[in-house]
């Protein structure tokens, strides 16, 4: 028997979490939070089941995939945590930003419970053998393919098949694949969106604000920027650290990003707003220096460009809805044709999509008829 429990991210965006139970293992793939959530902030796993978990596999250190790790530990999780070296480096900081204070006090993950790996390694947990590969989403990001009882289940995490900056390994053949459906049926790829962003930047020649997450997307943005720019001081060292993950990156992109960093001016809270693009974190205005910077830019009439997910209720979303911030999605997830390509490569007969609202899943099914659009957080599947 193989039981899949959809604990978060199915029919919704955020708190991504998949449970997998076999006779020899109980594990989670990812443990995220939902920015702007209330009762649905954490995964929908019964609290009494948490101490029985053997392991959690974390795909990368974004809040919707790792933000609930402190919550799990505070409720009795004592198993192993599998993640890459890069993901572990960013995980404590992500807990400080998104964990509830009472849970953060309990966050402790000793070395003997950490299983750090590099994408491409094969991992073992009980009767599960888990293949891994590069995600193309962030340096150190990984997808997982679990094999047990002759069945193969592919979990994408967040992936980008054709990033101009990062490399993704193909997900191998499997019986069930869980796709990163973040963009639903949107099929405008990186080339179109990059051209649109460059055109917008050309029209903001007197300066602009670019709120971004700390990992992944800053590399994509820096690779397309020409000319003067400024970066919040606290982002510079983490970006340089991401460039050390050579196996995850395309060499030509690294050259462009290093050149952009070399000509960038460090910017600090309270400095005058610069007359050039200013990169700042986070991308939603929900935490970090972007909270104050968004308010200052808005008050000064400085153009603001949002390029990622902006959940309802966040400062970035409110500015966009009021017409005071532009939004051009720079793909850091698969567009519809890329998800079709991933599915075709796996040959999976069963297909689910995570990190997407129901309407987006319905649109994606036009590309992938096998996609089950009825899967929702709280449901279970038996294979």
Plain-language structure description:
The chain is an alpha/beta fold and 383 residues long. It has two domains: 3-185 and 332-382, Metallo-beta-lactamase, Chain A; 190-327, Rossmann fold (3-Layer(aba) Sandwich), CATH 3.40.50. Helix content is 28%, strand content 22%. The chain is built from twelve helices and 19 strands. The protein has helices at 63-66, 69-74, 85-98, 101-104, 190-202, 217-224, 233-242, 251-263, 290-300, 315-321, 336-346, 358-365, and strands at residues 3-8, 17-22, 25-29, 55-57, 80-84, 114-117, 122-125, 128-134, 142-148, 151-155, 176-180, 208-211, 230-232, 265-267, 277-280, 305-306, 326-327, 350-354, 380-382. The strands form four sheets. Strands 6-5-4-3-2-1-19 form a seven-stranded mixed β-sheet. Strands 7-8-9-10-11-18 form a six-stranded mixed β-sheet, covered by helices on one side. A hairpin with a 2-residue loop joins strand 9 (142-148) and strand 10. The longest helix has 14 residues, at 85-98. The protein starts with a strand and ends with a strand. The relative contact order is 0.16. The model has no long low-confidence stretch (mean pLDDT 96).
